[in-house]
Amino acid sequence: MACGIFPFSLCVKWRTGCRQNWLLLVFFLYLNQMVGGHIRYTIPEEMKKGSLIGNVAQDLGLDLKRLRSGWARIVTGENIQYTELKTDKGTLVVNERIDREQLCGDVTPCSFSFEVILENPMELHPVKIVIQDQNDNPPQVLYPVQTGGSVVAEMVPRVADVGYLVTKVVAVDVDSGQNAWLSYELQKATDRALFEVGLQNGEIRTIRQVNDKDAVKQRLTVIVEDNGQPSRSAAVIVNVAVADSFPEVLSEFTDFTHDKEYNDNLTFYLVLALAVVSFLFITCVVVIISMKIYRWRQSRTLYHSNLPVIPYYPPRYSDTLGTGTLQHVYNYEVCRTTDSRKSDCKFGRAGSQNVLIMDPSSTGTMQRIQSEKSILDEPDSPLEVSLLK
Fold first, then answer.
1. Distance separating alpha carbons of residues 367 and 157, to the nearest angstrom
2. Phi-psi region for residue 313, left (φ > 0), alpha (ψ -120 to 50) or beta?
3. Distances in whole angstroms, Cα of residue 156 to Cα of each of 213, 243, 251
4. Which of 78, 171, 250, 259 could potentially form a cystine with 224 if both were Cys, beta carbons 3.0 to 4.6 Å apart?
5. Which phi and psi angles does 131 have, rounded to 5°?
6. What is the per-residue pLDDT across 4-62, written as a single tens digit (0 to 9) for each?
7. Which residues contact 42 (CB under 8 A, 6 or more apart)?
8. Within its chain, how far is the Cα of 275 from the centroid?
9. Using one digit for the tens of pLDDT, what is the confidence trace for 46-80?
10. What is the rounded CA–CA span in Å between residue 80 and residue 112?
11. Cβ(329)–Cβ(319) under 8 Å?
């Protein structure tokens, strides 16, 4: 197209638009050459780690040498890679356990996608994984709320006719498809001829007219079951009060809190605790008696023993004024009578003291050293003669 007959501004815009279109066309052609075959796999949820999803090399028509030489790898925007590519075998396996409810929630169908990239030349192979739901969740009862301490009861007047709506059991299932279809069934009841439960809606209604002979306290057990294979179920207890006034219901339901089922586990734990405490007490008593007997036998053995007893003299004061290598000195004084007919005592001089020295390096024996011979030991000493005069 010639630009001479058109204004200059229009001609520039046309040329710019053509250039952009050509660039987009070239880019799409380049992508078309890079993008190869598409793969789609359908797997159930909760598959174990390492489970086989499919053979990528065979499904894409690629050689194992091409996978290794092209540095084949998986590119995904997820933080957790649920799959792993085995380039040595060309297979795609589960790398992380896949929970459909956690991955997609209520969205159906549940799937995620990623690309297998090869280099030299560049190739992109989109892969889509569809997750099939499994019946791995039981139904959850929303109403009536199951409370442990308090009692919740639905009131039915005695003038209620046939088909009177007592209450409705509400439950949900987080699974999808037919696994989430729920059905309701009355398992136990105080009077099965008085109430019924709707199979699909969970409504509890009267099937006959209430009379004065019916008990005030009525307990119903409803089973909620899903349609999975195998099916999962949940139980709910509904308390019903047949009365015309609230005070009547209050007086009749005061003992509901005491009507609890017998707990075998609690009894087992109590018996086990009692047995452990008894065992520990008996063990302590036996140990104490054994120690008493052992100490008594040790004392009897020492009493009847003929071995000499070597006394032990603890150190009193250190000898800082003495000479030699001995560190501890023990002093004592000796007194003796001059005759059996006299009552006065004769004492030795201060210089005639006997000294007992403990040698720390010895094995317990004591050496007796006499510093000076006492003049009292010599017969007819001058000191003794002078004292007799």
1. 112
2. beta
3. 14, 6, 16
4. 171
5. -100, 120
6. 444 444 444 444 455 455 444 444 434 444 455 789 999 999 999 999 999 999 998 88
7. 129, 130, 132
8. 26
9. 999 999 999 999 998 888 999 888 899 998 776 56
10. 12
11. yes
